[in-house]
Amino acid sequence: MILSSTEKMDDQIDTLMADAFDIYGYDFSGYSRASFKRRILRLYALDKMVSFAEFRYKLRSDAGYFNRFLEQVTINVTEMFRDPGFYRYVREEIMPNLGTYPFIRIWVAGCSTGEEAYSMAILLKEFNLLRKSLIYATDINSFVLEKGAKAMFPMNKMKQYSENYIESGGREDFSNYYTANYSLAKFNEALRDKIVFSTHNLVSDTSFNEFQLILCRNVLIYFDRELQSKVFTLFDESLDTFGYLALGTKETLSEKSLNKKYKKTGNEKIWRKISNE
Amino acid sequence: MSNCEAIWIGGSAGSLDVLLKVLPRLREDIDFAIVIVLHRKPGADILLTDLLSSRTNIPVKEIEEKDPVKPGVIYLAPSDYHLLVERDSTFSLDHSEKVNYSRPSIDVAFESAAEVYKEKLVGLLLSGANADGVNGLLKIKKMGGRVIIQHPDSAKVSYMPAQAGLYVDYDALLQIEEIADWINKL
């Protein structure tokens, strides 16, 4: 614990946020406070900091440590075919529709280490659409993107991923998609080649392409309403008419100005852009 | 002005049966929120919400991110997310690493609620097989809130309430049939 008083601690979190912005250009002011604070306290304990002053000094003066901060305060927990019901819906309802486009662009925003991007690549492959597709996988944090770009994931996760895959309606042998390499599963180049990993900060960066499908699952839960609204506008600018926006299971397209343009489809948290005005 | 703004209930193995017995006996005009954080398998959230709803006339709602916490409502934490609460009394969800092998973690939920509701919070810990919740109860006490624990003798799995009883300076240790009465007097 940095200091005993909650109010004082909140001031200190504000100080760190101001430092992150002034020195490194990262703006965390729109992040949900409770979670952000918990992540900072967790890092503080994890790295056995003895005082707030030391913590702050290290963050301000050591860019390498700031990268660690970035990696630890943002949340990078993800899995392949996470929420199988969601992927079943994408497989059954969205893939056939995407197939009608001459070229398919998908954006996985806040992709972390890329598990959902690989899941999408697998789906596209099974629909024979991969060759005419490109998946943009972006995150605020370049370290996790480097991991994703290596296409290597822990072997001990494969059982869970394979179960998710089957539950989501997959009929292939999931192990065909990777080669076991000691403790790591190396995913096929054919999948990797169709994913572009790139840094993108949803807080400050603009639209960079038009997509038929944007996945941003369990990212907006960390943003306050104001920042969410900004990000929804960014997604709207980046989505083709009739494109799909897919959110996490407990997230909602809360931006009122977009209510008329979007229609919720099915029981999953997926909205379709039905008009451009 | 009530002296209780919210009661947060944590439970693991064996706690659902307790809730099914306690909920029907709660007075329907509660003027605080009840927030339930249970360890359970991901998915099928709607079934549990329906099951709890069937035992009480108090509205039961599964939490979505940013839902405002309203008095007179029973909230259920969704599976596979940590539950936190913001200073403006809206719920936050967090899909970070498991804590005590659990997501939602009762510790995470209680600690967050303790900071926001301070002395106006009651924490209740039920049956369970691990020590999740104990640190959360300690934090609730530290912030001036009250703590009640299901009597380990009455718990299907006594480890969790027993651990809490050992480490936390609780306000009451209650048999299942005493829990509703205690809450109704708040």
Written overview of the protein:
The complex is a heterodimer of chains A (277) and B (186). By secondary structure, chain A is of the alpha/beta class. Helices cover 42% and strands 18% of the residues of chain A. Chain A has 10 helices and 10 strands. In chain A, the strands form 2 sheets. Chain A has a 7-stranded mixed sheet. In chain A, strands 3-5-4 form a 3-stranded antiparallel sheet. In chain A, helix 10 links the parallel strand 7 and strand 8. In chain A, helix 1 packs parallel to helix 3. The radius of gyration of chain A is 20 Å and the shape is globular. The model of chain A has no long low-confidence stretch (mean pLDDT 95). Chain B is an alpha/beta fold and 186 residues long. Helix content of chain B is 30%, strand content 21%. In chain B, the strands form 2 sheets. A 7-stranded parallel sheet of chain B has the order 3-4-2-1-7-8-9, with helices on both faces. In chain B, strand 7, helix 4 and strand 8 form a beta-alpha-beta unit. In chain B, helix 3 runs parallel beside helix 4. The mean pLDDT of chain B is 95. Chains A and B meet through helix 2 of A and strand 5, strand 6 and helix 3 of B.
Give a topology summary:
The complex is a heterodimer of chains A (277) and B (186).
Chain A: H1 6-24, H2 33-46, H3 52-61, H4 63-73, H5 84-98, E1 104-109, H6 115-126, E2 133-139, H7 142-149, E3 152-154, H8 158-167, E4 178-181, E5 184-187, H9 189-192, E6 195-199, E7 211-216, H10 225-237, E8 239-247, E9 262-264, E10 270-273
Parallel strand pairs in A: 1-2, 1-7, 2-6, 7-8
Antiparallel strand pairs in A: 3-5, 4-5, 8-10, 9-10
Helix pairs in contact in A: 1-3, 3-4, 5-8
Chain B: E1 6-11, H1 15-22, E2 33-38, H2 45-53, E3 60-62, E4 74-76, E5 82-85, E6 91-94, H3 106-117, E7 121-125, H4 134-142, E8 146-150, H5 159-167, E9 172-174, H6 176-184
Parallel strand pairs in B: 1-2, 1-7, 2-4, 3-4, 7-8, 8-9
Antiparallel strand pairs in B: 5-6
Helix pairs in contact in B: 3-4, 4-5
